[in-house]
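[09:14] KT: can someone run the structure on this one? pasting the chain below
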Amino acid sequence: MEIIKNNPYRIAGILSNATERELQKQKTKIKAYTKVGKEIKSDFDFHILDSISRTEESVNKAFSNVEQNQDKVNYSLFWFLNTNPFDNTALEYLKNGDEEKAIEIWEKVTTDKEVNSKNFSAFNNLGTYKLLSQSKTEIKKGIEAKIKLIESDYFENFVHSVADQTYTIDKFKQSEKLIDELLTQLNKLYSSSETLQLFSGCNGTTQNYLSKKFTEQPLHNIEGRIESCKKNRKANSSNAYEFGLRLVTDSKDDLSLLNSLLGTSDLKYKTIADQLANEIMQCGIDYFNESQENNSTENYLEQAQKLTKIAERIAIGKLTKDRAKDSLATLEEMKDRELNQAIAILSSIKMAYEKAISEIDAQVAQMSMTMSYNQSINYSKVDKMKANCLDWSKVANVIRDGISVNDVEIIQRCSNQNKISEYKRLVDFLFKKLGPIQINQVKHICYWKDVRAAQATATAKKVGSTISSAADKGGCYIATMAYGDYDHPQVLELRKFRDDFLRKTIVGRSFIKFYYKYSPRLVDKLKNKQVVNSIIRKGLDQFIKAIRQ
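[09:31] RB: done, structure tokens below
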């Protein structure tokens, strides 16, 4: 400890209870030595201390520092004195380098004993020795010995042994001065929490003073960071998440120290903790609002939740805790916003479809009740009505406008598996109703599998429907299957050939009759075979090209 190693009494080469005559004699001797450049040695340059270089300047300053009574007391508390035979024997051992014997003597008269008129100097000497240790356990004992001495009824004996007999001192103020000096020395070596631990064995008065000393700076630090964060947040809310995290990180140690000193029930701690929690929470709110407004692709919801959860843990007051809980509840609702919105859109489509189907079934039921015995319902037409009960192109537009690619990316990250399952069921339902073109328009909503299979199924259904339509209209089965549309230009060309040429000859009419009889069976076998259909299209293209010439 520097204040011991460079103590004025040590530089002067005397004990702190030296008489005024001894002091002046030593002063004259040392000054004479320094003038002629002679090395100055002292009996009190103990082995436990580092070597010291005495100069004329340092010697003059040392003697100047112990002229006043208050200074004598201050520096004596960090040096040795000799007031009784115990000290005399222990100091002799210390001079000879036998530290264990010296400590044994002082501990014998102080351990588990109260300060009295015979051992007060032993408490001081033992404390000084312990403060020179590298061990925190020993330093802690040294501090306790010093505090115990000052707070005892015999501290006055100590004061009068190093200062004038008429000098009076306020031992509580002296205790604070000692603590201030110890903190100055220890803060160079240890963290705040480690330093506090060194005082843990001291009484309530010391603890209260330490609390006051240690809370001022952390409170000031946190208040300053809150103001700085608030200023940055208002100037640039898009970076509020980073500002909030930095505020948390930078304030962590100070808040922990305040907690250990004051406790969560202390008003000062409550106030600063709630202020900190509110600012962290506000960073999350501002960041969320800004990101949402700018359609950010960042996972801003989870980041806002992270800051709010931290704020909830820090908060002490009921109002702040309730605000954090309300904010978390709101964010939790927002967490599945895109998924909920997508489910709502898809559900409304399914409900509209089911309503339309229900109305068609009701109409069919009504018709069946009013029909005569020789009438029948064309269920093929009923099936077509059901298939086209909604304008699926408009449905695709509604989905495309209501569920964006960004929404689906957020849905993919959702952890609510029940809602995800519901969403997937609705998408599967929809893709069974849409045509291949519509599926292609909204394929982004089916993120978990390849939609080509669904498109192929839809294409097959469309072809089947088209073929059925061709049958109802007396159309070309194979051509409709190959081109996928009853009204395809090539199909129209073939129908024209049928009507303008084949129907006008006996052979042609026979071919038409044969074609309508057997082609439906062929179509039923070939309609899903893409390769075969491609070959048929190429053959028909060549035939159409020939009949046009």
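[09:33] KT: thanks! The mean pLDDT is 87.
[09:34] RB: yep, looked fine to me
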